[in-house]
Write a structure and sequence with these properties.
Blueprint: H1 4-13, H2 16-25, H3 30-49, H4 58-65
Length: 69
């Protein structure tokens, strides 16, 4: 099995599809992954407010609806 730091590094560098696969494949690291998403969401909001065409990630949208479940 890959080392945990390597998986977390891979998650940080991955696109949204790869992140989803890692999230599903590594349940013990889900809290870490959520933290990464929350912090990366802050950067996305800043880019959106800077008139960039970047939209919030699928993960950000999913996390924003998590409180409804």
């Amino acid at each position: 099995m890959r080392d945990l730091e390597g998986i977390i590094r891979e998650y940080r560098e991955a696109d949204s599809e790869k992140r989803l696969h890692l999230f599903l494949d590594c349940p013990p690291l889900r809290n870490e992954f959520i933290e990464i998403e929350l912090h990366s969401g802050t950067k996305e909001k800043k880019r959106v407010s800077d008139n960039s065409s970047t939209q919030p990630s699928v993960w950000r949208r999913m996390l924003s609806y998590a409180h409804l479940v």
